[in-house]
């Protein structure tokens, strides 16, 4: 019996850029290949790790460190991990890269104006109203990947096609057959 590849994919981009939609399209495709998959979605995990989030720099540092460690432990157990998290600073993603040997960073790109139009959670509305002072792309910088494995422009590429692009990269790197 051949061992399944161990890897993690970090979907990074501004809030409302399309990360969650891509993760939702990618997960069943990976599962159809016989992989165990876990999506680490920052919004859901924040409810547990920081139930009353302040989004301060210190809290984000701790949160993304914990997220990276969780992901690395899952990958070590043979679970394919999809990180669905803005991780607005490169240092957060770089830390995960140091823990996970087969780390694949995907830049989910979308203009800020489009993200603001798509924003169902009200993140940008709160930022513009002064209710939040740490929204990536508004008050807090977003540091895009310097050399991602893939760049996806979600104004041109939908979630299903994006998932297929990611699968293509994975197939080039790993034996992904059932």
List keywords for this structure.
alpha/beta; single chain; 5-stranded parallel β-sheet; Rossmann fold; 178 residues
Task: Write up this protein.
The protein is an alpha/beta fold and about 180 residues long. The chain has a single domain (about 10-175), classed as P-loop containing nucleotide triphosphate hydrolases (Rossmann fold), CATH 3.40.50. It contains seven helices and five strands. A five-stranded parallel beta sheet has the order 2-3-1-4-5, sandwiched between helices. It is globular. The relative contact order is 0.24. The model has no long low-confidence stretch (mean pLDDT about 90).
Write the SSE topology.
Elements: E1 8-12, H1 19-32, E2 37-41, H2 42-49, H3 57-76, E3 80-84, H4 90-99, E4 103-109, H5 112-118, H6 123-128, E5 150-153, H7 159-173
Helix pairs in contact: 1-7, 3-4
The ordered string of helix (H) and strand (E) elements is EHEHHEHEHHEH
The whole-number mean of residue pLDDT values reads: 92
Oligomer: single chain
Classify the beta-strand content into a percent band.
5-15%
Shape, principal axes of CA atoms? globular
CATH topology type: Rossmann fold
Helix content: 40-55%
Uncertain regions spanning at least 5 consecutive residues: none
Sequence of strands across the biggest β-sheet: 2-3-1-4-5
Number of strands: 5
Please, what is the CATH homologous superfamily?
P-loop containing nucleotide triphosphate hydrolases
Q: Please state the structural category.
A: alpha/beta
Number of domains: 1
Q: Which architecture name does CATH use? A: 3-Layer(aba) Sandwich
Reading off the top of the CATH hierarchy, the class is best stated as: Alpha Beta
Tally of separate helices: 7
End-to-end span in angstroms? 11 Å
Sheet with the most strands?
Answer: 5 strands, parallel
């Amino acid at each position: 019996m051949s061992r399944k590849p161990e890897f993690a994919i970090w979907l990074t981009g501004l809030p409302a850029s399309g990360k969650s939609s891509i993760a939702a399209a990618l997960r069943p495709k990976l599962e159809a290949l016989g992989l165990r998959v876990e999506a680490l979605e920052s919004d859901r995990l924040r409810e547990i790790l920081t139930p009353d989030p302040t989004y301060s720099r210190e809290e984000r540092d701790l949160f993304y460190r914990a997220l990276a460690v969780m992901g690395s432990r899952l990958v070590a157990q043979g679970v394919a991990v999809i990180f669905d998290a803005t991780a607005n600073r490169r240092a957060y993603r770089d830390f995960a890269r140091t823990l996970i040997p087969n780390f694949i960073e995907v830049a989910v790109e979308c203009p800020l104006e489009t993200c603001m139009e798509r924003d169902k959670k009200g993140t940008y509305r709160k930022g513009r109203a002064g209710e939040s002072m740490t929204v990536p792309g508004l008050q807090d910088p977003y540091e895009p990947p310097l050399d991602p494995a893939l760049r996806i422009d979600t104004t041109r590429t939908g979630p299903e096609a994006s998932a297929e692009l990611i699968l293509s990269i994975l197939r080039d790197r790993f034996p992904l057959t059932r």
